[in-house]
Amino acid sequence: MFRIAFDPIYCHPLPDGHRFPMAKYELLPEQLIREGTVEESAFFAPDLLTEDRILRTHESEYWEKLKNGTLERREERKIGFPWSEALVRRERTICRGTAMNTEYAMQDGVSFNIAGGTHHAYTNRGEGFCLLNDIAIGAHHLIDHHNFERILVVDLDVHQGNGTAQIFENEPRVFTFSIHGEKNYPLQKENSDLDIGVPDGIGDRDYLKLVDKHVKSLVDEFQPQFIFFQSGVDILENDKLGRLGVSLAGCRERDRIVFETAHRDNIPVAVNMGGGYSEKLADIIEAHANTYRMAASIFG
């Protein structure tokens, strides 16, 4: 059975009243255990990512601002959260979880991070509720500790992984691939190795055709040694921010395509949960739970 990074700090309220950032982080593990998709022993609590690993991905000037709480007001607005020690601690925990998940994925075929997917964080700044880029930190872990030369990022969140694209723009060992809402956030897109912008309202048939075509062709051509899968469910038709027209069944089929393609070629996959902002919390939990169920059915 696969392992899942989870820490109660994801759910702790901050002094200013923010709750991180939605109840889904607390409710999803309960749902997965209750229905028997995973056992409680599958969950592990990461420790804090060390400063040297942060500085492998992020610039020292930016990290000093995060560490010491000296971000400028405009930088905080870009991130979307006011600075706090709890916020930085949470990000370090998330990133450590994704780094650890690379090891678990190589062992079990797949691994998950309940709160991962901070793909809007750049080398020198945070954006879109992301301070540190856990996918980039995980990829650097594989490069530095396992000499990996072909890492594929499959980002299927509705928002482009602009930070991840910027971090790896000159890194041939990491191929960044994103299917995202063409007119959605961020307004100014970065250049991934392959970007597919889709129109508002795109439905299951056209969306899944793109996923199937490009995921399979990239795996065949790039022959990755490892895949990071950003599995945001903000592609759903009832998502408040997504504006696409993908059904719950279509979102589940998207996950099946990614997992079956990876499993076919014995490629480890680390899954980062990403976004989900439907009006009904139950819809968010069900969509995220489907990703775990699909992994359980394919990887065993």
Automatic annotation (TrEMBL):
This is Histone deacetylase. One of its GO terms (biological process) is epigenetic regulation of gene expression. InterPro entries: HDAC_classIV, HDACs, His_deacetylse_dom, His_deacetylse_dom_sf, Ureohydrolase_dom_sf. CDD domains: HDAC_classIV. The keyword Hydrolase applies. Residues 18-289 form the Histone deacetylase domain. The lineage of its organism: Bacteria, Pseudomonadati, Bacteroidota, Flavobacteriia, Flavobacteriales. Belongs to the histone deacetylase family. One of its GO terms (molecular function) is hydrolase activity. Keywords: Hydrolase.
